[in-house]
Amino acid sequence: xxxxxxxxxxxxxxxxxxxxxxxxxxxxxxxxxxxxxxxxxxxxxxxxxxxxxxxxxxxxxxxxxxxxxxxxxxxxxxxxxxxxxxxxxxxxxxxxxxxxxxxxxxxxxxxxxxxxxxxxxxxxxxxxxxxxxxxxxxxxxxxxxxxxxxxxxxxxxxxxxxxxxxxxxxxxxxxx
Length: 176
Known about the structure:
By secondary structure, this protein is of the alpha+beta class. 23% of the residues lie in helices and 24% in strands. The strands form 2 sheets. Strands 3-4-5-6-8-7 form a 6-stranded antiparallel β-sheet.
């Protein structure tokens, strides 16, 4: 019987005594098995995103993340497609968008499947630029908002009336 185990994250067989860290991955490792069309599409996506401005591009588990202060979109390379997830401040109605999910009060995640380099053009590139620029808009509007503290609810007496925390019945008053 072979000594070792199967990693429950990446499903690779790990021989006994061999170090394995499937959490640290690279763009190259995630894109090495892509077909020629998908590799061309990936290169076009990466190039387009990098041209938007200063940002961090890094691999995390099964995705390649594009972030400024926070992630504005990521790519999951699959066997037959690139799955892009863009975070913009509105819901995009387009046949290219497979699914939209509100992720916060200000952001909506949109899943777009890319299978060829020619798909990486407008409107997809416009959405990428919109997602990149969203952090500037959210930061400005977020700074203008003021939080108002809600008043504490009044406690109700035994008869159900609001009394401001005091009961008229001496037996129901808290001891001092």
